[in-house]
Amino acid sequence: MKLHEYQARDLLARHGVAVTGGRVASTPSEARKIAEELGGKVVVKAQIHAGGRGKGRLVAESETAAMFQKLTSDPANNAGQVKGDRVGGVRLADSAQEAEQAAAAILGRYLVSIQTGPEGKLVKNVLVAEQTDIAKEYYLSAMVDGGVGGILFIASAEGGTEIEQVAATKPEAIVRMPVDPAAGWDPYIGRTLAARLGFSGDQANQFAKLAEGLYNTALATDASLVEINPLAVTDGGQVVAVDAKLSIDDNALFRHPDLEELRDRDEEDPLEVLAQDLGVSNFIKLDGNIGCIVNGAGLAMATMDTIKLAGGEPANFLDIGTVNDPQRVVNAIKVILEDENVEAILVNIFGGMARVDIIAQGVIDGFKQLDIKVPVVMRLVGTNLAEGEKLIDESGINVVRTSELGDAARKAVEAASAAA
Ligand code: GDP
Ligand code: MN
């Protein structure tokens, strides 16, 4: 689950990370009021679940795709500005009145950045924060890294730009430092990171405190990623977080009911939201045309690979889990049918603890309850296979059956292209 910047910075501040003063606003007049409280010199920032806002552009809903095209093909002449005529998603304002104008230019419009995709994102809120006089920009993040088996810090003195670009063109400018999960935080980690970024004296202390705050935030929220880009050194020599990004591991959310409340469903894929509501929690929407219903995450990955091998494109990743509940299958079909790109469905079930007959019953129920117009290919093997096949035969539903995955994938690809 991603958080908005204004939510992330609140959490970071609670763990001792230095952030600027500021609050979220949903109307221009509210933005003006906050700017007045902060002394007038502020930055007004679109709150959406995507980065690249500063260089993004604000347009009407009908213009998002064209703007995305312009931004990706010719960024130099189209990218948004923090100050100037080309209004971007991050605006510097030098008075409360300018803040109100900036908010009016941002709110209710669609922000298109290289990260939003051609649909852009509707801006419902802006963060109004104290303006920082930035002397130098750094990059700092802490993420759960499978390779190191714990939290890994990534930092760079080449902040402000895309960290991926730094990694590609100047890999030596990236500092990596893992934290031993058994030992936990140790002050030497902050000191070492600070030294490797070139900080000394009081700034090194400020930086180390901030890094510790980042680590504590990550730990306390079960974050998969906490990222500060840019981390700024101000003209006055203060080290402060100017941007904040925080993603929480969905599988840990049950431990954080207070964080669950921060979820902004408008920002999430509508199909994924529907899937969650229907208890099909392991669903990720993709761009292809073959809907997949599979039990087991590994098998779901293998199914996607096999579809690709057969020349097709999966419309989703879907793991129904090990549940013996026909309704779960019906719900999975329901979610897949909501995707208008889907031209065939591939059901791939390897019955272990899950029983083939129960899954088969789910598909039969699906045909009864839903309006399934696309061809359905079923590959069934494992526990209670004979019972499952008997159920399908007796039900008379129109499905293609096979016991081999490669064959199933080819048949699904064929069925989808015939439907197209
Ligand atoms: P992003 O583009 O979505 O990553 O949004 P950021 O919050 O990182 O803002 C984009 C850029 O705007 C930053 O890299 C800064 O260079 C600039 N910016 C943001 N806030 C301030 C500020 O308070 N003062 C100044 N001078 N620049 C800022
Ligand atoms: Mn940023």
- First and last CA, distance: 34 Å
Query: Which class best fits the helix and strand makeup?
Result: alpha+beta
Strands, count: 19
Briefly, what CATH class of the largest domain?
Alpha Beta
Rounded radius of gyration (Å): 25 Å
Q: What is the assigned CATH homologous superfamily of the largest domain?
A: Succinyl-CoA synthetase domains
Strand content: 15-25%
CATH topology (fold) name of the largest domain: Rossmann fold
Number of helical elements: 15
Number of domains: 3
Biggest β-sheet description:
6 strands, antiparallel
Mean pLDDT: 95
Q: Detail the poorly predicted runs.
A: none
Q: Ions, cofactors, ligands: which are bound?
A: guanosine-5'-diphosphate, manganese (II) ion
**CATH architecture classification name of the largest domain:** 3-Layer(aba) Sandwich
What's the layout of helices and strands?
Layout: H1 5-14, E1 22-25, H2 28-37, E2 42-46, E3 57-59, H3 64-73, H4 75-78, E4 90-93, H5 96-106, E5 110-112, E6 121-122, E7 126-130, E8 134-145, E9 150-156, H6 163-169, E10 174-178, H7 187-196, H8 201-221, E11 223-234, E12 239-241, E13 245-248, H9 257-260, H10 270-277, E14 282-285, E15 290-294, H11 297-309, E16 316-319, H12 326-337, E17 344-351, H13 356-369, E18 376-382, H14 385-395, E19 400-402, H15 405-419
Parallel strand pairs: 15-17, 17-18, 18-19
Antiparallel strand pairs: 1-7, 2-4, 2-7, 3-5, 5-6, 8-9, 8-11, 9-10, 11-12, 11-13, 14-16
Helix pairs in contact: 2-5, 7-8, 10-12, 11-15, 12-13, 13-14
Bound molecules: guanosine-5'-diphosphate and manganese (II) ion.
Manganese (II) ion is lined by residues 51, 229, 243.
